[in-house]
Amino acid sequence: MIFAASWAISVRLYSLLQRFAPSNIVIRRVHTRSGIKWGPLVGFAGILVYGLLMVATATVVRGGGPGWVNLFVLVGFWNTVRFAVLIPASTVRLLRVRHQEKAQLRDWQRTPAADLAPADRDRMDAPVPAS
Q1: H or E stretch including 105?
Q2: What is the per-residue burial (b if ≥16 Cβ within 10 Å, else e) of 39-78?
């Protein structure tokens, strides 16, 4: 009974944090196709913001502040690590997606026009947008 209740509370808390925590919203937005190109820039900005938060709150605690401020130090550290991991992860994902798009474009351009439907033949003559 207690296990089920704690499980339900943790699931709801996780859901709330995924929807409303600023770092989760930003990271989720970066993982979209349109936002993936901003990954390194957003990662550096997140490291800067959360690193400063971590240093400032650690200074408050060291100066005799209340102990519960250590929670902000932990949150700052955790989010700094998350944004540091976001930089290489988004770069690798961007390179992989661009490689896949180029391969699809190459395959599509190599397809003989006789094998295509009439609507697809018209699209072959249209210019390809640059990425």
Answers
A1: helix 70-110
A2: beebbeebbebbbebbeebbeeeeeeeeeeeeebbebbbe
Gap between the Cα atoms of 67 and 69, Å rounded: 5
pLDDT tens for each residue of 31-73:
998 899 999 999 999 999 999 999 999 999 999 999 999 999 9
Q: How far apart are the first and last CA of the chain?
A: 54
Tell me the pTM: 0.73
The domain locations on the chain are 40-110
Q: What is the DSSP letter of 116?
A: S
Q: What is the C-alpha separation between 53 and 57, in angstroms, rounded?
A: 6
If one counts every other C-beta atom within 10 angstroms of the C-beta of residue 94, the result is 16
